[in-house]
Structures are given as C-alpha cells and as structure tokens.
Amino acid sequence: MEKKIRYFDIILRILFAALFTYTAAMKLIDFPVYRIKMRRQHFFEPLKEWLVWGVPIAELLVAIALVLPYLVASPKLARVSLMGNLVLIGGFTLYAGLAASGIFGYTPCACGGLLEGMGWWEHFLFNLVLTSIAAIGVWLHRIKKDAALFTSVCG
C-alpha cells in the first residue's frame, strides 16, 4: 500500500507541476493578450493588475514547490506544497464554476494554451476532477507518515 501511495504522490506532483508550468508559460509567452483577458475578468479593479502577475507567478511557485520535496526530502514542504496546490486549483475551480453559472455574464478565459479552448462548463468539470485529485493527495499525506514517503534523490 505504501508503494501505491508513493506512486500516486509522484504522479500527482508531476501532473500538477506540468499543468501549472504549461499554463504559466502560455500566459507569459502571450502576455499582452493574457493581460487584456485578465483585465476583462470580474474582479475589483485594483486587484486586476496584481492578478495579472500573481496568477502565473503562483502557478510557477506551486509547480516548483511540488517537485522540491523529492529533491531535498522535506516532509513539511511536501505537505505545504500539496495544500498550496489544492488552494490554487480549488480557486480556479470555484471561479470556473461561477463563470459557468453565468453569474458574471460574458467572461473570456485567460488560461492560455489548450485549456483556453474549453467552454466554462468543460473547464469547471476538468478543474473539479483536478481538485478532487489534489484533495486526495492532501488526505493521503494526512493519513500516512510524510517522512516515509520522501527520500531525497540527491542522496
């Protein structure tokens, strides 16, 4: 059972690190378009510019934090990175759900890359599955000793 949990943890971390790195890169590569779409989102005006930079930075930080525990054997970072991952994808899921419900009226998707082509309901369901996977990852770390899951690949 411990091996299955460890493999699930590795797959979860790779999945989310790749997803967040990809979406952040797509936003930064096409930054002028991403910025326009973010400025059209339904947030408080002073918050919009912070989110333009904050979202891709948060995605990259979470992606790095998800990988680091296997490089430095840090159970505390492992737990914190999984919680950060759950909060980030949970926030995206909540926003996609609100956008899908039509509460905001028309809202352009500012995700970047292939995800941008999804409709809001598809986006919501996709994110809901990812949020469930992230929640399972957090739960597994709570029931299993973190220290047993991590050994550094660096020695």
TrEMBL record:
<dbReference type="GO" id="GO:0030416">
    <property type="term" value="P:methylamine metabolic process"/>
</dbReference>
<feature type="transmembrane region" description="Helical">
    <location>
        <begin position="12"/>
        <end position="30"/>
    </location>
</feature>
<feature type="transmembrane region" description="Helical">
    <location>
        <begin position="50"/>
        <end position="73"/>
    </location>
</feature>
<keyword id="KW-0812">Transmembrane</keyword>
<dbReference type="Pfam" id="PF07291">
    <property type="entry name" value="MauE"/>
</dbReference>
<keyword id="KW-1133">Transmembrane helix</keyword>
<feature type="transmembrane region" description="Helical">
    <location>
        <begin position="85"/>
        <end position="104"/>
    </location>
</feature>
<feature type="domain" description="Methylamine utilisation protein MauE">
    <location>
        <begin position="6"/>
        <end position="140"/>
    </location>
</feature>
<dbReference type="GO" id="GO:0016020">
    <property type="term" value="C:membrane"/>
</dbReference>
<protein>
    <recommendedName>
        <fullName>Methylamine utilisation protein MauE domain-containing protein</fullName>
    </recommendedName>
</protein>
<dbReference type="InterPro" id="IPR009908">
    <property type="entry name" value="Methylamine_util_MauE"/>
</dbReference>
<keyword id="KW-0472">Membrane</keyword>
<feature type="transmembrane region" description="Helical">
    <location>
        <begin position="124"/>
        <end position="140"/>
    </location>
</feature>
